[in-house]
Structures are given as C-alpha cells and as structure tokens.
Amino acid sequence: MALPQSLRTSVTPPELELIASQQLIEIVPLISMERTAFISGAYGPLRPPNKAKIPLWMAVNLKLKKKCHIIAPEWLNIDYLQERLTRETTEPAFSDLPFRFAEISKVLLDVASDDLDNPDKLRSLLKDLREARQAKSREGLRELDHSELSLPNLCSMEINEIRPFFVQSMNVLSQIVRNPIPEPMMRP
User: Fold this and answer.
1) Global pTM exceeds 0.70
2) Total tally of structural domains belonging to the chain
3) Range of the domain at 30
4) Residue 81 burial (CB count, 10 A)
5) Which residues of the chain have pLDDT under 50?
6) H helices within the chain, ranges in order?
C-alpha cells in the first residue's frame, strides 16, 4: 500500500526485504566453498550436489553469480498457496502463513524465478492472497475499538502497512474515551 511521506512512520518494504534476507533458505550449490564466517554467522561448507542452508542474502548473491540453484521454501508452491487463498476467501480469520512470506516470495520471484515451478501462477496466487488479506485487514480496522485490535496471523508487511492508520486511530479513540462528548442537556 503506497503511503504519502507524511504517513510513513514505519519501515519501507525494501527495508523489510533486507530484514527478511536473514532468513535461512536451502540451495544446491554449483561451486565448492569452505565454511565461511560472516558477521551474521558462519555458513557452509558448500559441496555440490549436497543441499545447504544459508541466509537469503547469500543465496541471492550466489544465484546472481550463477553459483547456485535456490530451492523454494515448502510454502512457496501452487497447492499450498491455492489452499491458503481458499481459506482467506471462505473463513473469517487470517490463514496461517510464514511471518515474512511476502518479502521472501518477492525476492525469490525477482531473483530466482527460473528455480521455481510456474512462477507466473505463483505471482498470481500471491497477488490474490494479498488482496484477500488486505480486504480482511480493512474490515478489521472498521471494527476497531479503543482497547485492542486482534488480527492474528498478519505477516510483517501487513502489520507495517496498517501501523500508521492503527496508531492514528487508537490515539483518536483514546482521546474520545478519556474526554467523552457531553450529551446535550434536556429542557423541561
């Protein structure tokens, strides 16, 4: 959801992608590499054709250099996403998805679409899923009360999108609760 600069009180989508890049992902390396230490930890060794788990940022770097194939996470497949979309459109609650699914799927579709099965269908399902979840979160904001907002199973990108509206709404509702509007006096 694009917001004007004045309402951006939270992190941007590229910043969320950067945070998500710390998630571990499986690859099939095309090169050998000894265990290597980075600030975030030590990864490797990489030995083709054995799978290895490395951070997404490292997998993207290797993929761009054509030194690995990225293995899609178990949730990034047509059957799983279709089932989640069905739940989103038929059940009132948000379906359970990985917390950073939006960021990870975007990075993988941008960088490693050749490693994914039917990337165009995946993009379409992710778009439909996102739209269904956005509709639910808008409906949840309509039912906002001053004490809480309960929207379990929201992902990081969705939380980030509604945060500015939620904060403003909660401030207004709290002021109304603290300083109720007096009722008009009745004349005899």
Assistant:
1) yes
2) 1
3) 10-142+150-161
4) 21
5) 1
6) 13-20, 56-64, 78-90, 101-111, 119-142, 156-178
